[in-house]
Specification:
Blueprint (H helix, E strand, L loop, with lengths): L1 H8 L6 H12 L9 H8 L3 H10 L5 H15 L3 H7 L9 H18 L3 H12 L5 E5 L4 H14 L3 E3 L7 H7 L5 E5 L6 H13 L3 E6 L12 E4 L12 H17 L1 H17 L9
Helix pairs in contact: 2-3, 2-4, 7-12, 8-12, 9-12
């Protein structure tokens, strides 16, 4: 979230007592920002005037102004298409819907790529390419299809790739398979799913797996448990968020991982194709 990032960016400008308040806010953001002034002061072990000085440095006129900003970010993070339809600028009134949306989508893709450093990208690809690790993929109501897309490609590149089903009754089987070296790729966008947060807590906490999270700029609650968080831009000014930024990142990861050991990748795909073709029953000649 933008306010959370602002607190992190300005940490060096705060006094020692103000940093205590900032740390308390970041430890349970955004919910710590909804505490009363007295509750936050008690939790941060700081005075109320210290909190007021902090929010002033963040650009707010008072604690109430600060809390309205926190509430606004929470609302934005959980907006549905119904709410977004009432708030976004409607496109296409001049007959340019397709071209306008295309331009907005291209901008979203560029912005998505700019938020992910090459170092972070290479680190994530290295984890996924490590054949000693199992990789588990999980998505939400709509993002499950993106997890499935990534799964179908990665399983042709290397073994031990698992797609976690949408039915959470089957999740314990996959959790029991996980170990401390394994990777969970979680995809969760605004209108976040509570069960994905619970799953991630179990995967990272109980099983010790490393979570790679794909999410939006408001950050899924899964980010509390992720080792790597890759936020992409989804807002294109319409009621429906775009997945193009994430799709490009996924395709880049697929290509990079396949090239990590192209000899092994080629051999696996050749064997895969050979087995797939051999499954076809032989054609019998008619008597």
């Amino acid at each position: 979230m933008e306010l959370e990032n602002s607190i992190r960016d300005k940490m060096g400008d705060f006094t020692a007592s103000e940093r205590k308040v900032a740390t308390a806010l970041l430890a349970d953001y955004p919910f710590a920002g909804l505490l009363t002034l007295a509750e936050l002061a008690k939790q941060a072990r700081a005075s109320s005037p210290t909190i007021l000085r902090l929010v002033t440095k963040l650009g707010y006129q008072g604690f109430g102004d600060f809390q309205r900003a926190v509430i606004g970010e929470i609302k934005e993070a959980y907006h549905s298409p119904l709410i977004l339809h009432e708030t976004v600028n409607q496109r296409g009134i001049d007959g340019r819907f397709l071209s306008d949306l295309t331009e907005a989508s291209i901008d979203a893709v560029r912005e998505s790529i700019s938020t992910i450093s090459e170092k972070q990208f290479e680190t994530v690809c290295g984890l996924i390419a490590d054949k000693k690790r199992s990789v588990f993929l999980i998505g939400g109501r709509m993002s499950h299809t993106l997890a499935m897309f990534m799964f179908r490609h990665l399983r042709q590149i290397r073994s031990k790739i698992f797609l976690i089903p949408e039915n959470e009754e089957e999740w314990p089987e996959y959790l029991l398979r996980m170990g401390r070296r394994d990777i969970v790729i979680a995809i969760d966008f605004r209108r976040y799913q509570a069960n994905l947060e619970q799953f991630s807590q179990l995967a990272a906490g109980d099983r010790g797996a490393k979570i790679v999270l794909f999410t939006d700029k408001w950050l899924s609650p899964v980010s509390k448990y992720s080792a790597h968080t890759l936020p992409v831009t989804v807002d294109v000014g319409t009621p429906w968020d775009t997945s193009l930024g994430l799709l490009l990142v996924i395709e880049a990861i697929i290509n990079r991982v396949s090239e990590n050991d192209w000899g092994a990748t080629r051999k696996r795909i050749e064997s895969w194709d050979q087995l797939r073709e051999s499954k076809a029953p032989p054609v019998k000649e008619r008597p």
